[in-house]
Design brief:
Length: 149
């Protein structure tokens, strides 16, 4: 019988990114080879997609049908991109100071966007409040969940 944990990690949403040798950093490391992992090549633009996509797939495998995420950038982009791939609704709460380019990218992935507060903590509290009004939405914490680690 197939493990349910193995099942939700199959079919990764993130991509395998290249390693690029850094000649410049080699100078500072006693001639040792130094490689850069090019996570900026992920579809959402950062390493966050790896853990966040696993967390979102975990949520869906447990019956949740929508995602809510507090973010000022990378976590929200990863959540919105994953929701688009999973074809489920996504609501991202960002601070009022979040750059428009990030807000536009979130919308391009199909996320609804709410600008609230000046700090991540305020956006997080608003996301928690938004999420408590429904039994179908999963709160995607940007870093604090076993499926992300």
């Amino acid at each position: 019988m197939e493990s349910p944990i193995k099942k939700f990690f199959e079919g990764n949403i993130y991509i395998r990114t290249p390693l690029v040798e850094s000649i410049e950093l080699r100078k500072y490391c006693a001639g040792r080879q130094v490689y850069l992992k090019m996570e900026n090549c992920q579809p959402s633009g950062s390493f966050k997609l790896r853990g966040i996509s696993n967390l979102c797939k975990y949520a869906v495998s447990n019956g949740f049908t929508e995602l809510v995420c507090p973010s000022h950038g990378d976590a929200g982009l990863a959540t919105a991109f994953t929701a688009m791939k999973l074809q489920i609704p996504c609501h991202v709460v960002v601070g009022r100071k979040t750059p428009m380019v990030v807000c536009d990218a979130l919308r391009s992935y199909g996320a609804t966007l709410e600008r609230f507060g000046d700090t991540w903590e305020e956006a997080n509290q608003r996301a928690i409040e938004t999420n408590t009004n429904t039994k179908t939405a999963f709160l995607v914490h940007p870093f604090d969940h076993l499926a992300i680690w």
